[in-house]
Amino acid sequence: MAEKKSKGQQRLGELAYEKKNYYETASEEEKKEIFSYAEGYKTFLDAGKTEREACAAAVALAKAKGFSEFHFGDPLCAGDKRYFINRGKSVVIFRVGTKDLEKDGMRLIAAHIDAPRIDIKQVPLYEEGGMCFLKTHYYGGIKKYQWTAIPLALHGVVVLKDGSKAEISVGEKADDPVFYINDLLPHLGAEQMAGKAGKIVEGEQLNVVVGGLPYPDEEVKEKLKLTVLDILNLKYGMKEEDFLSAELSAVPAFPARDVGFDRALIGAYGHDDRVCAYSALTAVLDGESEHTVLAMLVDKEEIGSEGVTGMQSKIYEDLMEEICAAAGASFRRVRFASKCLSSDVTAAFDPNFANVYERMNAAMLSCGTCMSKFTGARGKSGSNDANAEFVGEVRAMFDRAGVVWQTAELGKVDAGGGGTVAKFLANLNIDTVDLGVPVISMHSPWELISKADLYSNYKAFLAFIP
Questions:
Q1: How far is CA 233 from CA 208, 237, 241, in A?
Q2: Which residues are 92's β-sheet partners?
Q3: What's the whole-model pTM score?
Q4: For domain 18-115+269-464, which CATH number applies: 3.40.50.720, 3.40.630.10, 3.20.20.30, 2.130.10.10?
Q5: pLDDT of residue 438
Q6: Cβ-count burial of 183 within 10 angstroms (0-12 exposed, 13-18 middle, 19+ buried)?
Q7: Cβ atoms 272, 454 nearer than 8 A
Q8: Chain CA centroid to CA 331, Å
Q9: What pLDDT does residue 259 have?
Q10: What residue spans in the chain does CATH classification 3.40.630.10 cover?
Q11: Adjacency order of strands within the sheet including 405-407
């Protein structure tokens, strides 16, 4: 028999706010949907270890749903399902709706598909100490020591001297070799361990082991290097000079895996931000909408959204303007009427490192997708700070659709901070707020999320684009 609540307890229940664990509130049928949706996501993660591969995986899913490629100048009409590829490294998947663009605007979801990694330098190959190495330059914000002594795969493209392109992916299959970055043994590591964590491993020490077999010719000086070059030439047509026009990256050779006895969590490389990219993509592919909706899966967020494939590129404005022109609508008026969810991950509260979180305003694992009114550092530097009216509007959308969601800040005020692509879209005069999945061990080679939060993100996007 339930204990009778006092008047004050009843009143507190009516007025107070508390976060809800999605697993506790979900029906058994919804739990099955949560777990089923996660399987597709894990497949997407394993197929897309780089932004190029994630772009290709997204396009494959779009094609399977009847979307076709768009080129500037193509006609567009209501009901069209299209995708636009930007240099093979970013993609916009969109539906042309029936609602008046100038009055109702577009519904935009922006996420990024690049992730921290170890890039190979343009003149990388050398041998020393019985090993052959590739020199590297890390990409994005990483803890360098986390990338040593783990199996790595090599992914990317090489444009050969004749203009042809070789695609490389080695280290993912069970019978593939993997690659490796050395670390110092603890027996000799006293001086190393006495230093600051950021200096335990220096950037120029992140050299990737790629060989150790001498070429069988006594007259050759660099035998290990020649063996590697010979393999690359026979398999891909490469010569050493072709590294000059290559984009190669070392990424963790781990597949996405369920974590925990209950399989409630997913461990994988690249949750940041492919967890948001996948849920944005599938929402646009699955959701029927009267609005014109775009899922913008972009590159270069981890290094400031620069360049021709980053969110600051004018190409995304050009595409939106092209859609407006096809409808005879003013781009300026459409932008003012449009709304955007900038979808990037946030830090989930970690009880092992509780001192950097302000618990009342921290994202909790399995409590649903997380809205961040602002990001930035310390005094909100570099942030889009969404207005209360738009937050209220999005809140109402989610509540009407029964979306389990929460709000959070990225750690304590003076603990650090981070940014997203939100400010670049807001600069176009588009109301924008951040929404994304809480992540444990963000930017590490193997991050952790909850399947419930992944599914909540998807449901939130469906609610946003009707």
A1: 19, 4, 11
A2: 84, 296
A3: 0.96
A4: 3.40.630.10
A5: 98
A6: middle
A7: no
A8: 29
A9: 98
A10: 18-115+269-464
A11: 68-69, 81-86, 90-95, 292-298, 106-112, 339-342, 431-436, 369-372, 405-407
Please state, in angstroms and as integers, the Cα–Cα distance from residue 303 to each residue in 147, 152, 283, 293, 439, following that order. 18, 22, 27, 27, 19
Place of tokens 């419930």: 452
State the amino acid at position 417 in one-letter form: G
Q: Any idea which residue has 């107070």 for tokens?
A: 16
Q: Which two tokens stand for residue 384?
A: 């889009």
The ranges of the chain annotated as CATH 2.30.250.10 are: 117-252
Per DSSP, the three-state class of 432 is: strand
DSSP of 229-284: HHHHHHHH---GGGGGGEEEEEEE-PPPEEESTT--EEEES-HHHHHHHHHHHHHH
Are the C-beta atoms of residues 296 and 316 closer than 8 Å to each other?
yes
* Strand 417-418 versus strand 369-372 pairing type: unpaired
- The pLDDT, as a whole number, for residue 1 is 53
DSSP strand pairing (208-211 vs 438-439)? unpaired
Q: Which residues of the chain have pLDDT under 50?
A: none
Q: How far is CA 141 from CA 210, 235, 269, 323, 449, in A?
A: 24, 33, 14, 35, 19
Q: Give the pLDDT of residue 379.
A: 87
The CATH homologous superfamily of the domain defined by 117-252: Aminopeptidase i, Domain 2 (2.30.250.10)
